[in-house]
Backbone:
């Protein structure tokens, strides 16, 4: 059974989505291939090439699911995604963000969560310097 779903809300994210998925695979491929983690791309009805790019990724990676339906923005997309997730844990990732190499520690924390916390916080590193 999968432990974590990484949800990526998208809208006209063609220039970002492949790099985002590549960073996920690069850093947690064993969790993805073992079924411990899934990726859900929730598209809000993109008008660019996002849906075609994700469709191509679906042919390559069995651990990606896509749901494309118009939403009212990123927070509505996140809420819609929660209804689609079948895992006890959810991680939201922007299409223009990347998973870091230390993300594997998340799985250890979640698997060893004896108190069944509802929220875990993990530090992030901002790469853009903004």
Residues:
């Amino acid at each position: 059974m999968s432990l974590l779903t990484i949800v990526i809300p998208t809208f006209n994210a063609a220039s970002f989505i492949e790099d985002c998925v590549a960073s996920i695979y690069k850093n947690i491929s064993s969790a993805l291939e073992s079924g411990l983690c899934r990726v859900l791309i929730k598209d809000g009805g993109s008008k660019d090439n996002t849906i075609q790019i994700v469709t191509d990724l679906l042919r390559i990676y069995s651990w990606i699911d896509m749901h494309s339906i118009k939403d009212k923005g990123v927070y509505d997309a996140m809420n819609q995604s929660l209804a689609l997730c079948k895992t006890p844990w959810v991680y939201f990732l922007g299409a223009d963000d990347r998973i870091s190499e230390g993300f594997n520690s998340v799985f250890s924390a979640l698997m060893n969560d004896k108190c069944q916390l509802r929220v875990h916080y993990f530090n992030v590193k901002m790469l853009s310097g903004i």
Observations:
- The first helix runs from residue 17 to 33.
- The chain has a mean pLDDT of 87.
- Helices lie at 17-33, 50-60, 74-84, 104-111.
